[in-house]
Automatic annotation (TrEMBL):
Transmembrane spans: none
Name under which the protein is recorded: Integrase catalytic domain-containing protein
Coiled coil region boundaries: none
Single Gene Ontology BP annotation: DNA integration
Domain Integrase catalytic: 169-332
Any one Gene Ontology molecular-function term assigned to this protein's record: nucleic acid binding
Top-level taxon: Eukaryota
Amino acid sequence: MRQRRWLELIKDYDCEIHYHPGKANVVADALSRKEKHEPIRVKACQLIITPGVMEEIRRAQVEALKEDQIKAERMVGKGIELTENAYGVKTIYGKIWVPRFGEIRKGILDEAHKSRYSIHPGGTKMYQDLKKDYWWPGMKRDIEAYVSKCLTCLQVKAEHQKPYGKIQPLEIPEWKWEHITMDFITKLPRTPKGYDTIWVVVDRLTKSAHFLPIKEAISSEKLAEVFIKEIVTKHGMPVSIVSDRDTRFTSKFWKKFHEEMGARLHISSAYHPQTDGQSKRTIQPLEDMLRACVLEFGGSWDTHLTLAEFSYNNSYHASIKMPPYEMLYGRRCRTSICWGEIGQRELGSLEIVEATTEKLERIKECMKAAKDRQKSYADRRRKDIMFQVGDRVMLKVSPWKGILRFRKRGKLSPRYIGPFKIIARVGDVAYRLDLPEELSGIHPTFHVSHLGKCLADESMAVPYDDLEIDERLNYVEQPVAILDEKEKRLRNKTVKQVKVQWRHRRGSDLTWELESEMRKNYPALFS
């Protein structure tokens, strides 16, 4: 019909046909080309692929239905419900019956869990996928047990449950400045006096604190001198000190110094800052006050540190229901807003003793109430668990917190490593692990919140050759290469900078650094 319409259209015209060479026909189409290809010959055929697993299942079913095996298969009385499909495989409820005999079940579970097409699904997803085609007694329970023993899943799966370990509050001290905590605020802007760190020392009873400016590179010997000058001379030698695992607190000199002075050191387990929660909580308002002072009054932070200490100690504290200074000295310190305090109040010696004793008892009651309240709040979000000596556990290694990092995998490194054997229980919520030689630089005692159950086969292990960690379970940032260089012009001089590619760096992997600092710290990059 289309050609007829064309003929009807052109019959009124005188047409002359001219030959147009193919090489000159730029807009050639299929109709203007001569067919040069031979027709393709197709042979009709039918290909039937029979999976080898069907034959294996059929043979296993024959053995499983024997009289000496059928009881172990838990199929007594169900034989009459079995039917055969086109492959001669017995089915039940429209699904293939997978016997216990042989390794058929394990092969199906491995394929449904570890292959490239499944990639370690959870127990529920795996069961929903398999139950469409297969059936055996206790199938769901077997799948959950299989997934719980998968070492890869234990390493990489995120937790969706409450963290392990109930809160274990420290005992309430009996007297002022006998039991203290301490910690550092590091990486602060360097002041004209060379300070870049604050040493925070807090009394656990009165909540009073001292904020001491120091240099981050200070040695343990110098730290002991500052401790005697600023703490011991004002409050006496403490009975116990709670701190984290900073290298200055774990040094032999620091331990020997306090041993001779009669003070006990209570150092936290590996990467568990909650042990020294008192210092951590004190640091938060201190940093806020210093930010406000620098923003509003200007100058370096160390010029405001003494008044920040005064403001903190003279302000109301929720745990003791009064300012720390009032608990320490019997009354609040006068400030520029105390216009109504005119004259002096005289108290006899007996009244002072009674008032101090009464206030101390009231403070202990307030602290106990606050401690119980905080424990109840925290325990709502925690789960109690207990391991036994000899159990095998996995060690948590968070991607950005705490941190074990791996050389090649970066952000995709495992969440857990192990398994490790528990060799001792330390307190109520900490355990000592038997770590391999590759991890000998790490303190082997860990809080229970960093451990996970391990039900995997004992023969399975994880290589530790490419671990890059320090003694505090922190990842080690390493420069990989120098990619570029430039000169940056400052007001009075010009400095050379290099563009560095980092491995295991938090944030950007590419940064501009001073060439002099990089040559000093990483000379191998320039060789």
